[in-house]
Amino acid sequence: MSNRALSRRDFIKLAGAGGITAAAGMAGCAAPKPSRSGDAARVVVVGGGPGGASAAKYLKLYEPNLEVTLIEPKRAYYTCFGGNWYLGGFRDLETLRHDYRALEYRHGVQVIHDKAIDLDAPGYQVKTENSGDISYDKLVVAPGIDFDYGDIEGLSSADVEAIPHAWEGGKQYAVLRSQLLEMEDGGTFILCAPPDPFRCPPGPYERASLVAHYLKENKPKSKILVLDEKDSFSKQGLFEEAWKELYGDMIEWVPAEEGGSLSRVSVSERKVFTDGGEQEHKGDVINVVPPQKAGRIAQQMGLTDADGWCPIDQVTFESKIHDDVYVIGDACVADPMPKSGHVANNHAKVVAVSIINSLMGREQMEPTTVNTCYSLAAPDWGFTVAHVFEHRDGEIHSVEGAGGLSPADESRGFRAREADFAPAWYAAITKDIFR
């Protein structure tokens, strides 16, 4: 790298999957300042999801002289995005599985499969369950989400086998899929959508669509009831257009103002109660997506505020609570950016540059970042939203007139073409994260 901060133009070139070669080429002569121990500067990343894995990879791509360590207990990561395609019956769960071998053997990241349990911020150490204390010069925390069952009477995290949330990849999706397979034709699938903010804002409505696709093909007498904590939702017009065209009256959406807000669950009776307990709904399969907050390790590390999320400097992603600790992905307060896998991947690239500039004593950049989100209402019916963001004056701002939403009232051919783009986007983003 040269002795200047990465320019905005440089960063945009590097921000996408096509920027990997360019990123490697820009790393070069100047090495980061040595750590307090006198060795190469060490960056530790906690969490191996889209944000953490991307951060570890891009730190090494942007500056190979860094020592980068990723702490992640799982040997493989199942993406949450793409999981609804599995529930709809047209994607195998194992195709959503990604490991960390490329990070280790291609990019030189040290991967420790262990659980981070606490932070000694003054001592610059991460405490782990089995690997002792791990020292860092800079720390990136990508903890994902945790679930808050506190306001749902009758339901706790112990009930996830009976009433799954399926809002984390892997096993929970398999549990929900199994329940759908076992449901009788003519049964009712109830989906309780969470309040804002939460991971993947269009996710519950894509799920309702693709469960409807599965039921229409296999159990056409069945019904779907979406009970919502909100009065509107992401891509609402596009979803409702698809529901009417594809599924008729199979899907019913009940907003909060009409009694959709969840109050209580009876696990044994398979019932949910809404509207302050006034309305009762019985389901054969019940999928409650609870309110969310930053992942548990962020709470244990003291990185969260009273709302349960992690406040950050929105230009550099450095924590407002601990120096030299950075928080990215779903856990951080990065409004107006949504909580999505694509956004976490962009956060990672910003934080990689922020850390390298800080270690080298360079001026920080004010980047431009993006989000792209594909949703499927059926295997051949898709639409998308794209956003562009500026990071300036310590805050994130949407770029007026940039990005956009798929148009309404388009042809089936148009929707089919957008549906074809979705798996290509999935392949590109997961390659950028894990390969």
Automatic annotation (TrEMBL):
Name of one Pfam family that matches: FCSD_central
Entry keywords, A to Z: FAD, Flavoprotein, Signal
Highest taxon of source: Bacteria
Domain (FAD/NAD(P)-binding) ranges: 42-155
Domain Sulfide dehydrogenase [flavocytochrome c] flavoprotein chain central as annotated: residue spans: 175-290
Gene3D superfamilies reported for this sequence: FAD/NAD(P)-binding domain (3.50.50.60), Flavocytochrome c sulphide dehydrogenase, flavin-binding domain (3.90.760.10)
Residues spanning the signal sequence: none
Domain Flavocytochrome c sulphide dehydrogenase flavin-binding: 366-434
GO molecular function: flavin adenine dinucleotide binding; oxidoreductase activity
PANTHER family in alphabetical order: FAD-DEPENDENT PYRIDINE NUCLEOTIDE-DISULPHIDE OXIDOREDUCTASE (PTHR43755:SF1), PTHR43755
Official protein name in the record: Sulfide dehydrogenase [flavocytochrome C
